[in-house]
Amino acid sequence: TDYSFPSLDSFPTLRNDALLRSAQGTQPLALGTPPPIWIMRQAGRYLPEFQQVRRDHSFFTVCRTPKLACEVTLQPIRRFDGLLDASIIFSDILVVPQAMGLEVQMLGGVGPHFPSPLVDPQDAQRRVLDRDVDVFAELKYVYAAITETRHKLDGKVPLIGFCAGPWTLFGYMVEGGGSRTWEKAKAWAYKNPDSAHAVLDKIARVSAQYLAHQVQAGAQLLQVFDTNADCLTPHGFDTFILPYLRLLPTLVREHLAALPSSPSSVPCPPMTVFAKGATSPAQLSSLSQSGYETVGLDWTVSPRFARTHTSSRVALQGNVDPSVLLGGSPAIKAEVRRVTWGPDGFLTCAAEGVKGGWIVNLGHGITPGVDPEDARYFLERVRRECAKKGVD
Ligand code: 1CP
């Protein structure tokens, strides 16, 4: 298929830039003005219209067919019309290992499966480090999906692009799928740290190129999902996770700055780091000074705790417990209350003069068992609580 990057001014004008203003820090959390809101994994299995598409097409066919990926990306925007402030391109973090030459299958009821994961440093040398990756050619189906979706969104909400944190991808590439303990990946890092560093560095370089390409294709904010950031020690986090999270925004900026400025330059959009489980004071502090505009939070810390340990220059995103959407309206109402006007909530802190933006989201992806009407109730409750100027 033919694809080339569009001219960015060929896209419809963005009519709702609340997310971008919060992330850039130009729209601090203001009482009475609902902050931007979106839901991690908002396009997916809990939506019957997604299941309908999946009945006819395999998971990676949806990812690789721009028309289908675009359709699925727009499904939550249509269903929750006016209640969501962002869309996120439908794809998966595992398209990057595929681009690097590893086979990945999506098994029903099981999840991702690598028929031949990386087995040892020699194997990684041969299959990963000694191989050049043509990031454009391998992933242009994602870029085509992003460009088409930017047009079809018609400026309604911004479009988020994403990739995984290098440590999370290393985990899948070594384990061959999801794992409760990630012990093969950890054993590799402890036994052969030089090899682990070389692979992490390679993943980071490919991922940064991929993120820059997504921006050239039309992505307006970038999020890095480091879902497995919770499985190492604090020292392991500083050694195998943080340096590669830091490398991503540095390299994305370098790539974009190196592009010719005519016909027009491509500015670097705001970036979000979501390192699930990295919630100690030291980790929050490091993440808030790692080159990202927004730090995503899981649900294990209070907003006040997170605010205390992060720079006021970053916006925070989260931190509603996704499981609460399985708990019915009273539970949803109580959890929304906790993150807004609870004693340690974002709005309570803002009312006390604590600085810094907030992007409302769950603390991890929405789960398949959620009733879409409960997701709608969640979005409505947030708007209701955030319209108030004080606790009632
Ligand atoms: O059969 C199916 O339809 C598979 C279900 C599914 C979906 C809908 C998978 C398999 N991936 C996705 C889409 C997806 N994955 C998106 C885009 C949709 C959206 O956000 O609206 C994104 C951002 C991801 C990211 C992703 N994939 C992560 C990081 C975020 C997170 O939730 O932790 C991870 C770890 C994966 C791996 C993955 N892909 C799919 C599965 C089942 C898994 C294992 C982790 C899991 O079970 O959630």
UniProtKB/TrEMBL annotation:
<keyword id="KW-0627">Porphyrin biosynthesis</keyword>
<comment type="pathway">
    <text>Porphyrin-containing compound metabolism; protoporphyrin-IX biosynthesis; coproporphyrinogen-III from 5-aminolevulinate: step 4/4.</text>
</comment>
<feature type="domain" description="Uroporphyrinogen decarboxylase (URO-D)">
    <location>
        <begin position="160"/>
        <end position="176"/>
    </location>
</feature>
<comment type="similarity">
    <text>Belongs to the uroporphyrinogen decarboxylase family.</text>
</comment>
<dbReference type="GO" id="GO:0006782">
    <property type="term" value="P:protoporphyrinogen IX biosynthetic process"/>
</dbReference>
<keyword id="KW-0456">Lyase</keyword>
<dbReference type="GO" id="GO:0004853">
    <property type="term" value="F:uroporphyrinogen decarboxylase activity"/>
</dbReference>
<protein>
    <recommendedName>
        <fullName>Uroporphyrinogen decarboxylase</fullName>
        <ecNumber>4.1.1.37</ecNumber>
    </recommendedName>
</protein>
<comment type="subunit">
    <text>Homodimer.</text>
</comment>
<feature type="domain" description="Uroporphyrinogen decarboxylase (URO-D)">
    <location>
        <begin position="36"/>
        <end position="45"/>
    </location>
</feature>
<keyword id="KW-0210">Decarboxylase</keyword>
<dbReference type="InterPro" id="IPR006361">
    <property type="entry name" value="Uroporphyrinogen_deCO2ase_HemE"/>
</dbReference>
<dbReference type="Pfam" id="PF01208">
    <property type="entry name" value="URO-D"/>
</dbReference>
<keyword id="KW-0963">Cytoplasm</keyword>
<comment type="function">
    <text>Catalyzes the sequential decarboxylation of the four acetate side chains of uroporphyrinogen to form coproporphyrinogen and participates in the fifth step in the heme biosynthetic pathway. Isomer I or isomer III of uroporphyrinogen may serve as substrate, but only coproporphyrinogen III can ultimately be converted to heme. In vitro also decarboxylates pentacarboxylate porphyrinogen I.</text>
</comment>
<dbReference type="InterPro" id="IPR000257">
    <property type="entry name" value="Uroporphyrinogen_deCOase"/>
</dbReference>
<dbReference type="GO" id="GO:0005829">
    <property type="term" value="C:cytosol"/>
</dbReference>
<dbReference type="InterPro" id="IPR038071">
    <property type="entry name" value="UROD/MetE-like_sf"/>
</dbReference>
